[in-house]
Design goal:
Layout (H helix, E strand, L loop, with lengths): L2 H17 L4 E14 L17 E12 L5 E14 L2 E17 L2 E18 L5 H6 L3 E14 L4 E12 L18 E12 L7
Antiparallel strand pairs: 1-2, 1-8, 2-3, 3-4, 4-5, 5-6, 6-7, 7-8
């Protein structure tokens, strides 16, 4: 499947739950901070407290959908992500689609994961030549895992803290076009803070 077709599929999945008849619809604002792995190969676990490591900053809007009393929820959204090492900065727009398992009622333990599609829309610190631009993978596919807690702070507001690991499945440079022997696949270890609002709805009888 071509990358742009996969990206269109991600968009359709993003907006379908909003149009579908559901019971719990949560909109959230999120920020994230941690580190990125700029070395060859994705690391399984990344310590976000390490010093002198490439930084990862992110912010985004999330949407969660689940039926009443269900412990599983669909999660998607739109994120901006920045990976930075010294003078090199990579800027992405990212759409994730995944599921969370929520254990508890007012205060919940969260475990989840899924896939994401991302577009590298701007970068600094890399060659600007036509040949190098032709080697860069602008569209990136990947997967993520997260775990954390969610606390109910009012009838319709929830605060969450998560640790998340991202794994790009697409290398930074296209191996079919690149002659660079030091090509690498990026991964991240980040903490995210979120505040979401549950849209009031009538429960179906």
């Amino acid at each position: 499947m071509r990358p742009y077709l996969f990206f269109l599929l991600f968009n359709s999945v993003l907006f379908y739950p909003i149009l579908a008849s559901g019971q719990k619809n949560d909109w959230g604002l999120n920020i994230g901070y941690g580190i990125s792995n700029f070395s060859p190969g994705s690391k399984t676990v990344i310590n976000p407290f390490l010093r002198n490591q490439p930084q990862h900053l992110s912010a985004g809007v999330s949407y969660d959908y689940s039926p009443w009393k269900a412990f599983i929820s669909l999660r998607t959204g739109l994120w901006y992500a920045n990976r930075k090492q010294n003078d090199t900065a990579l800027n992405y727009f990212k759409i994730p689609i995944g599921f969370d398992l929520n254990f508890g009622k007012n205060h919940q333990f969260i475990f989840g994961g899924g896939l994401y599609g991302a577009v590298l829309f701007h970068y600094n610190g890399l060659p600007k030549t036509f040949e190098f631009k032709n080697q860069i993978n602008r569209f990136v596919l990947g997967s993520y895992l997260n775990l954390g807690i969610s606390l109910r702070v009012s009838d319709h507001h929830y605060f969450s803290l998560r640790y998340q690991i991202n794994y790009d499945s697409s290398p930074l440079l296209n191996p079919e076009k690149s002659v660079n022997q030091n090509n690498f696949t990026l991964s991240d270890g980040i903490f995210t803070l979120g505040l979401k609002y549950r849209v009031p709805q009538r429960r179906s009888k």
